[in-house]
Amino acid sequence: MASTAPHRYDAEALRREHPIADVVASYGIALRPSGRALVGRCPFHPDGGRPNLHVYPDTGSFYCFRCAVGGDAIEFVRRRENVGFGEACRRLAGLGPTSASPPSARPPARRERRWDRLTLEEQVVMNTACALYQHALWREPRALAYLRERGIPDWVTRQCALGFADGHSLETYLRRRSGLRLAQDLGLLQRPGQAEGAQPLRELFRGRIVVPELRGGQCIWFIGRALEEAPDRPKYLALGGERPVLGLERAAGRREAFLCEGVFDYLTAVSWGLPAFSPCGTHLPAERLGLLARTKVVYGVLDGDDAGQAAAARFGEQLGERWRPLRLPEGCDLNDLGRRPGGRRDFFQLLAAARRHTRTAENHGN
Known about the structure:
Blueprint: H1 11-17, H2 20-25, E1 32-34, E2 37-40, E3 53-56, E4 61-64, E5 70-71, H3 73-81, H4 85-93, H5 120-137, H6 141-149, H7 154-159, E6 163-164, H8 169-175, H9 180-186, E7 189-190, E8 202-203, E9 208-215, E10 218-226, E11 236-238, H10 248-251, E12 256-260, H11 263-271, E13 276-277, E14 297-302, H12 306-319, E15 323-327, H13 334-339, H14 343-365
Parallel strand pairs: 12-13, 12-14, 14-15
Antiparallel strand pairs: 1-2, 2-3, 3-4, 4-5, 6-9, 7-8, 9-10, 10-11
């Protein structure tokens, strides 16, 4: 008797085999070059004839700067045809001569991992890990106390889906569901020994506060902060591959955005109601700048030391006239400032002065 099980598609293979520009054009949307992007009329809202849709062949993504809809080729098909993820995969596979291979048939060679291009199975594992980490956090008093001591309120902890890796929950859960291999491929679980089975699996983020990057409610990446610092243990640890920009989806499309250098600076800014994002370091990938196209001003909230000022200069080269660095007190980052008496008030006074300067410059420009 023939199997009635639904066909499973390799989402990564679909994205690789169906360039985003070809997918968009297959729906009769005319595209023209504009810098590194292609632009055309967005099919997801009445656009009045304006080319609000930007297609980025380099990253395999699209984004509309009016209705803020974006994603990859699968998401474009899903929205255009109003179907679910699986059906969108099936229809996308039918657009070209190459059908997607089953998930077990992985490409023989893999470039540096792109966390915004997870397969469906990988996405399930990432979402599962995120949920398990969140659950573990609320059962770990030390982790909750640490976040509160750093000035992060509980509502931000929930909104940003912060978690804690207890060192055993993820492996225990995935072992029962045959998900260990995928978790190892993603880097969430590691085996210290060289030979298969020589050492037990260990969680990459064990004993760490875990901060996820969420895109459309889906977890695509993690960075972890050690609860207890030690000379032989890095303070921060992140999944390998190309790092996404933490919180960029939150800031995209806003008139103002706040670039924070560190993870806890970002969380502090979120707790103050600011549209913040963080590259988790001093490098902002150029291909991510397209999501800030509608942002008029990007305030830099960087450390007040020499390294922070050097980073401000580099970000200024990337962002041009939109860049407004805020000089914090020397030796102080935003999270430090937020925990000082009157620190939040001092920051908003600094921001108010910067906004006045921005308005003055805009008026002179007019």
